[in-house]
Amino acid sequence: MENKNLVLGPTFAEMLEPARIDPQVRKRALKARTEDPLDPINLFNITWKNADNRIYHMLLPKELTGVDAPIVVLYSKDFPTGSHKVGATYSVLVDMQLSGDVEPARHTLVWPSTGNYGIGGAWVGCRMNFKSIVILPEGMSEERFEKIRQYGARLILTPGCESNVKEIYDKCNELRRSDPNIRIMNQFEVWGNYRFHYYVTGNTIVELARELKERGVGDGRVAAFVSAMGSAGTIAAGDRLKQVWGEHKIVGLEPVQCPTLFNNGYGAHDIQGIGDKHVTWIHHVGNMDALMCIDDLECKKGLQFLTEETGWNVMSRHGVKVEDVRKMSEIFGISGVCNVLGAIKTAKFYGFGKDDLIVTVCTDAIDRYHSVMRKMEEQFGRMDEMEAAVRLSAIFHEQKLDWICEGTREAHERWHNLKYYTWVEQQGKTVEELNAQRKPEYWLEKQAHVAEVDEMLIAARKEC
User: Fold this and answer.
1) Strand pairing of 222-228 and 131-137?
2) Closest CA to 202 of 233, 230, 241, 232
3) Among 269, 275, 358, 340, CA closest to 303
4) Are the C-beta atoms of residues 348 and 67 closer than 8 Å to each other?
5) For residues 74 and 96, is the Cβ–Cβ distance under 8 A?
6) What percentage of residues in the chain have a pLDDT greater than 70?
7) Which domains does the chain have, with CATH numbers?
8) How far is CA 219 from CA 49, 223, 244, 352, 353, in A?
C-alpha cells in the first residue's frame, strides 16, 4: 500500500466508541464539524454519538405512533453529509484502500447510488484524495445533485427514478470498460457497507437498549429492528441484534409500488433511498423474520405532516410536547417516515407491548426533500389542519396490517433465489458463491473481517 496522499480515518471500534479516538483528534474533529465541514478531520465524526458520547436517538411519542410498544429512531442528520450512509462509504473505501485495491493518485472511484450513498461517496472520496464520480437516477431530488457537486464529485445521471438500478449498473459497466483505473464502489455488493451497520449500528443499538432500560423504557432488549432496504446495508444491524437476543425480529420494508421481495414485483416509487427493484448481494435474507410493504404516498404525506406548521399544531393539540414536535421536524426524511410506519405495523402485527422496544433509523432529514414537498403542495394543495388531523389518524394511528409476508422457510428460499437473476446472470457472481450464502459460516466470516480492518488501519497509521 502506498502512503503517498493517503488519508486515514477512524477504525470500526472508534466509530462505535468515539471516546477511543485520540482526544486531540476528537477535539479538532468536533470543532471542524461546524466550522469546516469539508476538512478530512471530519472523518472522525462518523459515529452515532455526539460530543458527549450520547447516542443520536429519539423516543417517539405514543400520541404519534398510537401503539404501546416504545418506538425509538436513531437519526443521522448530524453525521458528516447529514446521513449515516457516509459511514458505509467510508467503511467501503478504507477497506479497499488498506487491501491495496485502490490508490488515491491512481484510481477514480465510481459510486452507484440512488442518493445518500452517492452523497457520502462524494464527500468521503474527495476528502480521502480520490477523484470521484457519482451515478444517480435523473428523477431524484434536486438537493441530492447539489450536495454531490458541492463535495467535489462529478455527477452522471441515468434514466428513471429510485427503482431504476439496472440502468445504473449498465453505466458502471460502461465506465469500467472505458478506463482500467476505474473502480466501482458498488454499495449493493461490497462488504464494508454491511460491516459498518452490523458492527457500528448494531452494537450502538445494543448499548441504547441498556440505556433506555435505565430510564424506564423497555426491558433492556430490542424486540424488533425495522428497516427498509435500499442497498440492505442498514438492515445488517439486525444480524448483530439477533446474535444478542435470539428471539429478536428483523423486519424489512419495501414500497407497495415496487414489491420486489414481496411478490417478485416491480415498478416506480418515490421513497428515495429504498426499493431498488432487486435483492442485494449483501442482504442476509435468511435472517429476515418478516417483510412489509409501505405506501410511498403515505410516507410523503407523513413527512409533510411532521415538518409543516399545520401538522405541528395538530400534534400539539394531541399532547405531543413542543420540543418533540420541533425535533421530529428536523430529523425525518421520506424513508425515515417509511421506517416508522413499518415499526407501527410491526408493533401491531406481533402484539408488542410497553416492554417491547422497537428500533428503526432515520437515514436523512427534510433538508433533502424541500423540492419534493413543493411538488406535493402543487399536486394536492396546502395541508390545512383538518387534513393534518386526518393524516395523523389514517397514516399513523390506523396503519393497516396488509402487505405482510412472514419469513417462512419457503419465503427465505424465494428471497435467496431472486439474487440469481441480478448477480449471477448480470453481474458475474457464481452459483457457488450464491449457494455459500445459505450457510451461517459465510456471514460470520464477513462479520469477523471488522477486526482485521481495524488491525490494518492501526498498522497503516504507524507507517504514515
Assistant:
1) unpaired
2) 241
3) 340
4) yes
5) no
6) 98
7) 57-80+201-410 (3.40.50.1100)
8) 22, 10, 14, 12, 11
Q: Which amino acid is at 379?
A: Q
CB 113 within 8 A of CB 81: no
- In three state form, how does the secondary structure of 393-405 look? HHHHHCCCCCCEE
pTM of the predicted protein model: 0.95
Please name the residue that has the C-alpha cell 410493504. 293
Q: Please give the single-letter amino acid code of residue 397.
A: H
Tell me the percentage of the chain whose pLDDT exceeds 90.
Answer: 87
Beta bridge partners of residue 323, listed in sequence order: none
The one-letter amino acid at 382: R
The number of beta carbons lying within 10 Å of the beta carbon of residue 234 is 29
Q: Are 341 and 298 in contact (CB under 8 A)?
A: yes
Find the distance separating the first CA and the last CA of the chain, reported in whole Å.
11
Q: Where do we find the cell 437516477? A: 137
**C-alpha grid cell, residue 87:** 459511514
438, three cell numbers? 445459505
Q: Determine contact, residues 464/260, Cβ cutoff 8 Å.
A: no
Grid-cell match 408488542, residue found = 352
Tens digit of each residue's pLDDT (9 = 90 or more) over 82-132: 999 999 999 999 999 999 999 998 999 999 887 789 999 999 999 999 999
Task: Give the full edge-to-edge strand order of the sheet including 357-362.
Answer: 57-59, 71-75, 357-362, 222-228, 249-255, 290-294, 404-406
d(C-alpha 151, C-alpha 81), whole Å: 9
pLDDT band with cut points at 50, 70 and 90 for residue 163: low
Q: Which amino acid is at 77?
A: K
Long-range contacts of 207-216 (CB under 8 A, 24+ apart): 207/55, 208/55, 208/57, 208/72, 208/74, 208/359, 209/357, 209/359, 211/55, 212/59, 212/70, 212/72, 212/357
Longest dimension (CA), the chain: 64
Cα–Cα–Cα angle for 54, 302, 207, rounded to 5 degrees = 20
Residue labelled with grid coordinates 418515490: 270
Contacts of 426 (CB under 8 A, 6+ apart): 166, 169
Q: Pull the grid cell for residue 119.
A: 452523497
For residue 337, which of 395, 250, 406 has the smallest C-alpha distance? 395
Q: How far apart are CA 201 and CA 16, in angstroms?
A: 8
